[in-house]
Amino acid sequence: MALLWIIIIGFVAGLIARAITPGDHHPSGFLRTTALGIIGAVVASFVGQTLGLYGTGQGAGIIGAAIGAVLVLTVWGYLQKRR
């Protein structure tokens, strides 16, 4: 059941990030959008734990995952422009 929630939260966070971030170099499709959201949640959890916003073992919620996914998309777009 936890895996289902990870997929749902990842997909929603990926959709939010794709809607917020400008540019046309976004990964598309269900799997890539979900992976984007999940990676964003991992990034947000790591940064939040490093800054002391989250305790050990706590993860980012939907808002944190979306912010992390926006950060990942920004880096992705920067790397795509350099090619």
TrEMBL record:
<dbReference type="GO" id="GO:0005886">
    <property type="term" value="C:plasma membrane"/>
</dbReference>
<keyword id="KW-0472">Membrane</keyword>
<comment type="similarity">
    <text>Belongs to the UPF0410 family.</text>
</comment>
<feature type="transmembrane region" description="Helical">
    <location>
        <begin position="29"/>
        <end position="48"/>
    </location>
</feature>
<protein>
    <submittedName>
        <fullName>Membrane protein</fullName>
    </submittedName>
</protein>
<keyword id="KW-1133">Transmembrane helix</keyword>
<dbReference type="InterPro" id="IPR007341">
    <property type="entry name" value="Transgly_assoc"/>
</dbReference>
<feature type="transmembrane region" description="Helical">
    <location>
        <begin position="60"/>
        <end position="79"/>
    </location>
</feature>
<dbReference type="Pfam" id="PF04226">
    <property type="entry name" value="Transgly_assoc"/>
</dbReference>
<keyword id="KW-0812">Transmembrane</keyword>
<keyword id="KW-1003">Cell membrane</keyword>
